[in-house]
Amino acid sequence: MCGRYTITVTLEELMLRYDIYYKYPARYSPKYNVAPGQQVMAIVHDGEKNKLGELRWGLVPEWAKDEKLGFQMLNARAETLADKPAFRKPFERKRCLIPADSFYDWKGTGKQKQPMRIMLRSKEIFSMAGLYDTWTSPDGTRISTCTVITTEANELMADIHERMPVILQREAEEVWLNRSITNTDILRPLLKPYPSDGMYAYPVSSRVGNVRNDDELCIEPLSLLL
């Protein structure tokens, strides 16, 4: 699964990367340890332009009776999106990009698990494929939430974990956000493992396991912290 990631760039870099030219109204700060349940940055398309906003990580379907269901919907398996009631409609109509510049996963088993930071060799921002939905609480509060789509591991990730987030190729981002495309047969081929030769990984401190730790020490190579 994908359970932690980073987005450490400036707001200006983020907006430039996604061709967003309006003034972003909310506060933004780099994140070194984004965790489930938090508000995360996401990109959607409104039919005319890309829009940057916040979604809560953990998808709550619009038909859910309780928002706690979101804690079970942090990730969505690419292979079964069309089969799951929570993901079927969002897959057709409510797709988003979740910007990141790395993600974390844990290598090994038991108490010997080693957190690893995985990123592109270019160190550029990349887009994780996501789905979103909006749930209305009994008191009328609207909550917009998202999930990160995962796929089978590439050769690099297979040594760390059997799954990895879907990282879209740059040319696939526009297709993924295109609201006029509802044929999932067109979209499904986009949800494949990113080429392993374009990525690398290195060990980091176990402090990333604590959501309260959100600073540059989270991404320091372990060898530099010892």
Automatic annotation (TrEMBL):
Alphabetized UniProt keyword annotations: Covalent protein-DNA linkage, DNA damage, DNA-binding, Hydrolase, Lyase, Protease
Entries under SUPFAM superfamilies matching the protein: BB1717-like
Keyword Transferase: no
Enzyme Commission number(s): 3.4.-.-
The family this protein is said to belong to: Belongs to the SOS response-associated peptidase family.
Name under which the protein is recorded: Abasic site processing protein
Species the sequence originates in: Paenibacillus aceris
